[in-house]
Amino acid sequence: MIKKGITRQIVLHYFIVVLLALLLVEFIFMLAVQRYYYESIYNTISSHISMSKDFLEPIAREDNADNGNLSKLLTNLNFSRAELEILDLNGRVLASSAAFESDRAVLQTSDIMQAMNGNTGRWVGRQPGTGEQVMAVSQKIDLGGENTYIVRYLTSLENVNSKLLVMGLLAVAVGVAVLAIVLIISIGMANSIVRPINNITAVSAQMARGRLDVRVKGNYKHELGELASTLNFMAHEIVRSNQIKDDFISSISHELRTPLTSIKGWSETLDSGGYDPDETRIGMSIISKETERLIGLVEEMLDFSKLQQNQMKLVKGTVSIREIVQETMLNVWAKAEQKQIHLKLDTDENRAFNVFGDGNRLKQVFLNIVDNAIKFSHENSWIYLSVKEEDGKIIAAVQDTGIGISEEHLIKVRDRFFQVDHQNGGTGLGLAITQELVELHEGTIIMQSELGSGTTVTIALPALPEEEMGSEYQADDSTPGPGSETGIQQNPSDPKEV
Where is there biased composition of kind Polar residues (predicted)? Predict the structure, then answer.
């Protein structure tokens, strides 16, 4: 007995479908064979009646009212394979070659009624008295005058039915054999599906219990192979994500501990008193900076959480990418100055390179990219920024000559929590947030890097057509830009340098 499950369902469905198909085929087959045999008998008798009429001409000229003419009719119409009966138009038997019925019996079967209407009648049924199944074929013969008779032939169907029974039993035997073969094949087919599923289920159960080192083994094909590969890939990604999460927890713990330690230490120091105003200002300044650092870390994690839940709201408007990049350079100037890193901007000062977007979020994008460039650049190096328009897109690029990223890490660097160098701190969320923000602005971000040679980050955003800018940009352009406030060179022909 097959236990409950997919195996039983598959076998049962195949078995039922094939069984119904076999029953239908065998029924149609037996019906066709029976019809063929019965039609053959009917056609044979009908042909005999038609040919026998040619011999009735001499009889028609004689007196047909006596029994002698009936005997002649029996002789001329006799058929060795069937009993012959001569009936009047009332259905009474006048003569018979071998009586099934009692003498002078009146018959009212359907073949007689059809013969009275001028057709060749046929009736299949049980012979009264004997219970034998017979076929009756009747036809009216008009010999002229009042000499009109019904010629009726009766033939037994027992021999034909016995042959049909043998054929039916043979068909049943063939059907049983086919069902047995189908049963064996369906069980094998079901097992070929169920075994891999059971294996995958067992491995999945182990993974659910935390054993992420197990893998589905076996060279499965088609959908099962895809399922096994997907499960193995999922386990690999979970292990990788867990590792990234552990690294993130370790990193963020360190990142949070450092400013908290500074805040706690200076708070206790200041609380103890006895320090001059200069030391107090230094302590308060450190507390303020470390607090801002903590706020930045928390905001970065909150931004990423909003992006993951599709809750990030953008306040969009006309934004000048040139001004965004200039402001970014001014914001990171002090940090770059500490490492003696030079920032250089190459752009057309007469164009704003406007896009439709959220200025604060786009500034966050460029701040993160330039800050990373400074973080991973050598002292006394250069960082090149450029803004231009190509094919209806604003292209902004940030190129550094820093340590670069290996090909292995480059494909993972935009994954959440991933950090190339844990020594430099951070949450590993910056580039993941940057990519999400760029995509929210219907843009793309491309990173190219070579280990030891530097990294280039290129952002492409849909440009606003000049006619959509209106006079608003002209008014803004007349006001002093960030460059004029900080001594950035204003000659459009020269690259900007901070």
Answer: 486-498
